[in-house]
């Protein structure tokens, strides 16, 4: 059984790491973009951000003044038992969010949508969001915190099967141009695309693709992987760079996730993470060990299964 105090302590450490320390995969991607950028203002922004990230780590301060809207992704093995059960788990994550808001500190962004009231701690009705995933076997729990900007950088459209790949490309480019021209996202960023599902699951797929996959990772479907490479190049060919200025590095990487959908439609969502790509991960074991990492490793074969029953032997054979 995993102790609830250990879960809360680990969660508070993760909140600190996500706000302050850039994941290595994203930092490498950003440095590569800075090395090839030739737009004056875009180059200036990229260099300033790289210097800011280094200063944030040295001073142990949040890397961006807008620390986004903290959210949690929780994955656990099928045999996992938690002291106090799922209610205690959610309470621990809410306490960790509140404590980190005052401790790191984070900007208390969460307010009531109508009355604009807040508790000054990023906790409230439906906040922070907590999403769950499960894996066969094992007694462990993965805690993943993502501090994603909570204003713009997201769009959705119902496409139709006849729109095909060209329709997907058009909406993708429409979204990126709108993000850049209207200041709706902080570029460059990891772009996540959700295809299929229902409207709500399509949005979830796209956001998870942006926030829970690392730079350089590719979808196991070779045709989708080829699209990810093509879309990264396409997004960097529209003449926009950092923060929408003239440049050629708007997309650090592009990740695509799919879900089966209604036969008459083809849902699509586009999500930009942040120029400050804030995520941190830890696996908590039943024996008290805690292993920190930056790769969420969310999209396993099990998460992408497409059969009625889970057949790991068949998946390994493929």
Automatic annotation (TrEMBL):
Q: Tell me any Pfam family this protein matches.
A: Fumerase
Question: Mind listing the GO molecular function terms for this protein?
Answer: 4 iron, 4 sulfur cluster binding; L(+)-tartrate dehydratase activity; metal ion binding
EC number, as in UniProt: 4.2.1.32
Which UniProt keyword terms apply here? 4Fe-4S, Iron, Iron-sulfur, Lyase, Metal-binding
Domain (Fe-S hydro-lyase tartrate dehydratase alpha-type catalytic) spans 9-282
* InterPro entries, A to Z: Class-I_Fumarase/Tartrate_DH (IPR051208), Fe-S_hydro-lyase_TtdA-typ_cat (IPR004646)
Q: Which family does it belong to?
A: Belongs to the class-I fumarase family.
Record's protein name: L(+)-tartrate dehydratase subunit alpha
From which source organism is this entry? Roseovarius gaetbuli
Lineage at the top is: Bacteria, Pseudomonadati, Pseudomonadota, Alphaproteobacteria, Rhodobacterales
